[in-house]
Write a structure and sequence with these properties.
The structure holds two protein chains of two kinds. By secondary structure, chain A is an alpha/beta fold. Chain A has 16 helices and 20 strands. In chain A, the strands form four sheets. In chain A, strands 6-7-8-3-9-10 form a six-stranded mixed β-sheet, sandwiched between helices. A six-stranded mixed β-sheet of chain A has the order 16-17-18-13-19-20, sandwiched between helices. The longest helix of chain A is centred in the middle third of the chain and has 16 residues. Chain B is 73% helix and 0% strand. By secondary structure, chain B is an all-alpha fold. In chain B, helix 3 crosses helix 8, helix 4 packs across helix 11 and helix 5 crosses helix 6. Chain B has a single domain, classed as Orthogonal Bundle (ABC transporter involved in vitamin B12 uptake, BtuC). The chains are: A alpha/beta, B mainly alpha. Chains A and B meet through helix 10 of A and helix 8 and helix 9 of B.
Amino acid sequence: MRGIVRCFGAVRANDGIDLQVAAGRIVGLLGENGSGKSTLMKVLFGMVPPDEGTIIFNGRELSGHRPAEAMQAGLAMIHQHFMLIEAMSVVENVMLGWPAAGRWLKRARVGQQIREASARFGLDLDPDARVADLPLGRRQRIEILKAILRGADLLILDEPTSNLAPAEVAGLLAILRRLREEGRGIVFITHKLPEVLEVCDEVVVLRAGRVAGRAPVAGVSRAALAEMMVGRDTTTPHVPDARPPGAPRLVVRDLRGPGLDGIDFAVHGGEILGVAGVDGNGQLELADTLAGLRGATGTIALEGTDVSRASVAERMRAGLAYLPADRARTSLVRSMSIADNFFLRDTDAFLLHPAARAAHAAALMATYDVRAPGPQAVVARLSGGNAQKIVVARELDRAPGVVIAHQAAWGLDPGATRFVLDRIVDLRNRGAAVLYISSELEEVMAISDRVAVLFGGRFAGVVPRATADLGRIGLWMAGQA
Amino acid sequence: MSLPSRIALAVALSLVCAALLIALSGHDPFSAFAAMAEGALGSPHQVGVALNKTTPYLLAGGGVALCFRAGVINIGAEGQIALGGCGTAATALAWPIEAPLPAILLALAGGALVGAAWAALAAAIHLGRQVHEVLVTLLLNFVALLLVQQALAGPLGEFGAGFLQSPRMPAAVWLPRAIPGLDAHPGFFVAVVVAAGLSFLLWRTRFGFAIRVAGASRPAAAYAGFSVARLTWGVMLLSGALAGLAGGIEVLGVQRRLIEGFSLGFGFKAVTVALLGALEPLAVVPAALFVGMLEAGALSMQRQVGVPSSLVAVIEGLTMLFVLAATVRRRAA
């Protein structure tokens, strides 16, 4: 790809990018949210046409192509969200939309091909298994298998590890190495630096639509990569030393309901209580129940007042802020403007004042570094990091006394993650009580004063960070203590 | 292409298709359209008829648009209009007042109240028993029409009339002519003011904001602290009252008595008009005018050119299809 330029309105999403992938090489494509990675790959795959620049693939120029033609030429894209039909079997999904499978369904023959390819690349896939019964890691392998069987020479993987468990990630990296041995080229888009260092041959870093750096992976350090990405050093946020916590601001007693099996805890002013644990052990239920979105038995006291029966709006007025994990449908309305989303939880005025709102929204955008053409821009057009900054600005700018954050930095690049965590730590330093729920143990360990582990709808244990022992936390997370 | 120009194109395309159909049936499309325009706009009397036809579509259509915006698919205007007319007639006959203005206001309030009550029944079944709102509102239409029939066969009916109708309304409640020389009652102008009010409600108040959020994402509405149940009650009661008002105005302004089937199809046309106006209360005004004028011109087209007036139903259907095709949301690339 040479000199690719693609503009959306006044924003130059790609501003003269060169990218070269040789056969048998894995190229890591790094960059913050909104740096132009996705756009570049969409241009390559023919989903959006470039404004300028040329694409040469296997010695042939690709221009004005559509995804179907890109696939035929030997390109394959594996999206973050899989394009599989869950009610169908593996073999049926592989045949779907594959002209070479023929007009008549030959399950046995394609199944045999799947078994052979599966053995060759260590995919361990049963052609007759139903997709709905497979874990996410296996489903991703189906997508990879589809690409292999269709003879793809270049695979593009868009944040392939973001939904996988650690063991599945190791499996995926092994598969990528085998593909490299076969001489296929791979573009690996990710935020996670350790994976880049582990599997990539070279790395290209994008920043603000331009190539900020490219280097062979051998001999580059993690800190250097992170700095290339954001143009500054991103170490973990600095939590000041533990200090005597203030009065309890959020006290929960014997919370029980679907997914919750008797939770007791208190969060004090000036304290971050981190909740680690594998997702699906009651995290969503706990966060939603505290915010008032689901019912449960037990008591929730906010600033000493029982709010167990209070509505969402009443809890908000009592000083509770909530950053939900689901940004696609809950914490943001994607089809509405940034200004409207800033006011989603503004319960006061009966009349709306569009001009005052736009001005206030513009101020918030500046303070919280939301990069967009203006307050009237639709949220669906923003990158994940910018969208989450809207939620952070809305929830934290009104100086809440208690913050519930659930997967607040999920899917964000190091720069945006750092930004979000810093805002939360700021608030804690000013005396707020924070419940920080995340399945990223590293994050929880970095910013918490105390660490709790949620397993099976109850706290398996709570320890101060200073005395936290990773081995013991691991056992708690696995439910073995 | 912007949304308004896409809708204009859709309307133009549907007229082209209609012209082809007329030509296929062996008539001249241009003279047919000319006769239709003549019938809708040719004289003050005709303009008045067109405005009167527009009124119920506009009133009920605005309410339907609000419901759809909130993600509440209310197909119940048909029954609410019929019962609203019945409520207005019953009020006017039961409490005759000499002075026109109080008499009219009381009768219309009765109609709006009955319309809202019928919508409330639908909302209660939908929210209380978790039955899908399309099913509830649609099926209650048939019950409503039978109730009106029952009322006309019993207490409201005119003795010895030969078919189901009420006695003539007392003269005090007849709607006056709005503008001297123009054969229209004031209903159209009331409806335009209502549409402006609904637009303000939707875009400039917190309630309208809540409606838009709930329509875009139910989880987001709950997170924002809006009660979806309360919102549903709000939009259902409002649209029911507007539909009831539409029925009442039709009875007092056009028929001057309650006749069985006086509002046949009005409620479904209101849905058409709401979608034609892209669920934007102010844009429902031209959409309702378009349908109202088509129907006002239909008879004159039949008389003068011999094209059956039912062709208008075909044009309405085609317009609907084209507009839906033009306004369908593209999937984000």
